[in-house]
Amino acid sequence: MFHYVYLLESIKHDNLYIGYTSDLKRRLVEYNRGLNFSTKSYKPWRLIHYEAYRNEDDAKRREGYLKTSQGSRLLKRMLKSSFHCLERSSYLK
Questions:
Q1: Main-chain dihedrals φ then ψ at residue 84, nearest 5 degrees
Q2: Which of 6, 14, 65, 77 is least surrounded by Cβ atoms within 10 Å, i.e. has the fewest?
């Protein structure tokens, strides 16, 4: 079983969201159905990046790191050339 750290982009807003799950497809469906209170006003969402881990603790650690200022800078550098939304998003500044 894999555990995933993912980055979602709101299609209608300049918002990004970093999360962790063991079922990536199910989680994306939940976001787009508005089942997550904190993100439902920003739907629809699309998946723009994910990382797979065999160990759940490793995935949780990575999610926590990517949510720090140092981790968000790393993620921004990794994906900057692919996604112009990273330039506008306050989440990764």
A1: -70, -20
A2: 77
Count other Cβ atoms within 10 Å, centred on residue 60.
14
Residue 93 lies in a domain: no
- DSSP-derived pairing of the beta strands 16-21 and 3-10: antiparallel
Query: CA-CA distance, 65 to 70, in Å (whole number)?
Result: 8
- Strand, coil or helix: 15: coil
pTM of the model: 0.84
Query: Using CA atoms, how far apart are residues 76 and 57, in angstroms rounded to an integer?
Result: 23
Range of the domain at 29: 3-88
Angstrom distance (rounded) from CA 45 to CA 34 = 10
Q: CATH no. for residue 81?
A: 3.40.1440
- Residue located via tokens 């921004």: 76
The label of the residue with tokens 């981790």 reads 71
